[in-house]
Amino acid sequence: MKVLKFGAVWCAGCLIMKPRWQEIEKELPWLKTEYYDIDESVEVAKDYNIEAGTMPTFVFLDKEDNEFLRLHGEIDKEKLLKILEENKDK
Amino acid sequence: MKKIIIVIAIMILSAVSVPNCIFAQDMAKDPVNIYFFWGEGCPHCEQEKIFLKQIAQKYPQIKVFDFEIWKNSQNRNLMIEFGKKLNATVSGVPFTVIGEKYVVGWMDEKNTGAQVEEAIKCALNNTCRDIGREITDIEQQKDVSNQENSKIPETLTVPILGEINTKNFSLPVLTIVLGALDGFNPCAMWTLLFLISLLLGMKNKKRMWILGSVFIVASASVYFIFMSAWLNLLLFIGFIVWVRVTIGLVALAGGGYNLREYFTNQESGCKVIGTEKRQKVFAKLKTIINQQNFYLALGGIIILAFAVNLVELICSAGLPAVFTQILTLSDLPKWQYYFYILLYILIFMLDDLFVFFAAMITLQMTGITTKYSQLSHLIGGILMLIIGLLLLLKPEWLMFN
């Protein structure tokens, strides 16, 4: 499983989520994540249909790189941990 | 802008000289009373004033009571009261009431002057009611009744703060609440956040502080200039009922929009300008920050702050407009109007100041949660609806002085 994190330096919610993800990544060393700044990685953002108005956006991909979940905004750390543990084998 | 400055100048110069108020004047019982509503700086009013002086000499039985309405809200309300009683559309000044007849505007002696004289003759023949006397009698009765039946205590004892005057306390509280609702929008600080991200990459810390502070001050100045101009415009034309009604409708529309945002945008996403425009602003910011010449960078940041905030302001003009309308309803000394505008802006800018100083001191970007922006949509929406309804139906409840 892999999580694509879409954000921007000007997005207040993204700044809130940044340390949360850092903690999660420390707690779950098996987790693969990739961060994309939508102003820099315009093509990737376009491929995943990311809108500036719904930032931050987190796209959850399975082993075959198929999207199975998408979350927007500020998400609680506990909620994220639960989702990640539940989908660990995907 | 030039006209507004001239008008402000006239208003300030004349502030001391015209304290006309109905309760300060000795209303005559037997003579024919003429109620003359006028505005400082209105040329037609000046012409009618001259005419009324002449006619007063011709008919010694008449007595003229004049009410300046552009600066005196009590007189303005009295004019509205006259309009209601006479079933007249009081859309401007001069507005003259004689007996139960009224004349709106002034053309010349032959036309409007003749109408006024005819009304005087009618009143002298004792065939006309004195509407003005009826209203002032009611006003006096209302005053007595209000004093007797007032259910809201004038003072409240609050822990820590001690005894506070409810009338004096309401406007500061409302200012803080509206400023916070207008300002607490982490989504609106995208330009500042981007600027901070650029500033943090700078080696010259002094330059970093100066450019960031100048951006904040310029942003606040845009709001101050806009709100001051709006305030003076409303003080100038605010007596027109339709202005209040329009702002009341704006408040209702703003309230409806906020409630719609609350119920439909539950994901608390931030609405930002389109990618292309955003990229343009960012490119300009980068150019300004990297400008070798410090003064050019300073000038650039001021211009950009003005441009960006002006756009943001137009998008959220509802609350500042409603707030300034409330200020004009409260008959305050000039300095207090500006004090409340500054207080509003200070509260409005608090989140920006927090983010800026936190980043400058820790050299790390700090975000403000967008979690509560949804809640501010709900509270703001309800408050705007209440204010809108009050502006339309009970404006006197918003008069804090």
UniProtKB/TrEMBL annotation, chain A:
Q: What is this protein called?
A: Thioredoxin domain-containing protein
Q: Residue ranges of the Thioredoxin domain?
A: 1-89
Q: What is the lineage of its organism?
A: Bacteria, Candidatus Buchananiibacteriota
Pfam families from the UniProt entry? Thioredoxin
Q: Which organism is it from?
A: Candidatus Buchananbacteria bacterium RBG_13_36_9
UniProtKB/TrEMBL annotation, chain B:
The membrane spanning regions, by residue number, are 169-196, 208-227, 233-253, 294-319, 339-363, 375-393
CDD domains found in the cross-reference section: TRX_family (cd02947)
Does the keyword field hold Membrane? yes
Residues in coiled coil: none
Q: Where is the signal peptide?
A: 1-24
Q: Which InterPro entries match?
A: Thioredoxin-like_sf
Highest taxon in the source lineage: Bacteria
Alphabetically list the UniProt keywords: Membrane, Signal, Transmembrane, Transmembrane helix
For whether the record's keyword set contains Transmembrane, the answer is yes
Q: What is the protein name for this chain?
A: Thioredoxin domain-containing protein
Q: Which organism is it from?
A: Candidatus Buchananbacteria bacterium RBG_13_36_9
